[in-house]
TrEMBL record:
InterPro entries linked: SMc04008-like_domain, SMc04008-like_sf
Signal peptide: none
Matches recorded under Pfam families: DUF1244
Ranges for domain SMc04008-like: 27-92
Protein name: Alkaline phosphatase
Length: 99
């Protein structure tokens, strides 16, 4: 497989993941962090870092708006719930060694 085809397939897989997560607003970021170690915010940060590495000026909120498809505050108001005590405890256990 040539490099351009590989790049296009990787980009398509990323878009599919982004679109899947956009439909699954019932899945909270904290649940993703507890199970996978990353969430939508991580994906938007990685997008920002890739842009910045290529000389494209982009801040955190711009990257989140691109990833979420709307301003982050709007997405949070529509979709994010308060984390339960159980979710917070699971987060602490899952990330106790992270710094």
């Amino acid at each position: 497989m040539d490099d351009q085809t590989k790049l296009e397939l990787e980009a398509a897989a990323f878009r599919t993941l982004r679109d899947h997560l956009a439909k699954r607003t019932d899945v909270q970021n904290i649940d993703m962090m507890n199970l996978t170690g990353f969430c939508r915010n991580c994906l938007s940060r990685w997008y920002q870092e890739a842009a910045n590495a290529r000389g494209i000026e982009m801040d955190k909120m711009e990257a989140r708006e691109i990833f979420y498809g709307m301003p982050f505050d709007q997405w949070k108001a529509q979709n994010q719930t308060d984390a339960s005590d159980a979710q917070k405890a699971a987060f602490e256990i899952a990330h106790k060694d992270a710094t």
